[in-house]
Amino acid sequence: MLPGKIYRYIAGEIVTPFLLGLTVFTFVLLMGRMLRLAELMINKGVPFVEVFKLFAYLLPSFFVITVPLAFLLGI
After folding, report:
1. How many domains is the chain partitioned into structurally?
2. What domain range includes position 53?
3. φ/ψ bin of 36: left (φ > 0), alpha (ψ from -120 to 50), beta (otherwise)
């Protein structure tokens, strides 16, 4: 029973910085793209739904970079 408590404690100590790092790193990377997406919406007249889809398609490519960085921050 003791190893279960230790693993839960370690996971609890890692999860909070991991999620915080994932949020911050993803936000920082997306800010560069947000300007381009806003420009598409304003200047080109692209509907918000299409911009949101494009935003959703971009997230996995950013997670490739941000998840390892967040793990490093968490550990």
Report:
1. 1
2. 2-74
3. alpha
